[in-house]
Every structure is written in C-alpha cells, then in structure tokens.
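Morning F.,

Quick status update on the modeling queue. The single chain you submitted on Monday has been processed. Sequence for confirmation:
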Amino acid sequence: MRELKDYNIQFVGLKEGKHQFDYSIDNKFFEAFSYDEFNSSSIKVSLTFVKKSTLFELVFLAEGTVEVPCDVTNELYHQEIDSELPLVVKFGPEFNDDNEEILILPHEAYEFNVAQFIYEMIVLAVPNKRVHPKVIDGTMESEALNKLKELEIKKVKTVESTDPRWDKLKNLITEKKT
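Structure tokens below.
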C-alpha cells in the first residue's frame, strides 16, 4: 500500500497541542483498498489531531459526494457524504484495534497510518439502500420505475360472503357476554 503513505502521521516530531491535517479523497484512494462501489468520488477529509502527553485525540470530518447507482432505478446520482469519526490513540505493549473508538499503538511506534479509518468512515457513511433523490420526491422518469408501476399489485376489495349458519353462532357469543 505504497500509495497510502501520504496518510502516515509521524507524531514523534509533533509538539503537544492541536494539529490539522486535510486530505482530498477520490477514486484512487478506494482503488488502494480494491473497493469499486463508487463511480466517482470527491470528498474532503479534515483531521483534527490533538497531541497530549499520554494519548492522542483524533476527530475525522468528511464532506463531499460519491457517485453511486440507485438501488431502485439503477440511475447514477451523487450521494452526499457528511460524517464524523472520533478516535483516541493510546500506547500499550502491543498493537490493538479491537475497540472501534480506541487504538492502542506499541510504545516504540513513531507513526501510524489513518487511511483505514478514513476508508471505513466514508464507506459506512453511504446508506445501505441508495435511493435517487428524484425517486423520493416523485419527479424521476425512468423505464425501471414505469415497469415497477405497471407490475404493482393492486388490492382488489372483495365482499366476504359468509354462511348464515355461522352468523347465527356468532350472535350467540355476543348475546352471552351482555
């Protein structure tokens, strides 16, 4: 993952306090993870890095769009991305990323890569069911929607006819209760 070396943060030389890192994410970033769900992407990621004596506090903010196909019509549209990911980095005897909010780095570490966190934050910000905004507001015209409307099951109201003998038995139940 040589192309992701730009996402390495060397924290040994940083002074204590707040630091800002900005990244522009496009499809080349996702290709490094072999992820091809997005036709195109344009996302700005802002990382606020607060270095303290024993830990780091990171807050990732992502804003932008990804072009994805609609699950209903298969039409491409730009899905808005607006996501936030807080992360605490501590030090311990060995690397541990079991907890999604706390990353433990070995004591001898001098840098770490934030690309995986950016990737997960963006991918999880896209809804599971992707629906074109024009489908939601009803202005979309497409062959798929027309075919769905044509094949829609129409509810036919039927009048139930019952056997009059059962009606007499039902009356017995209601008469007994009163």
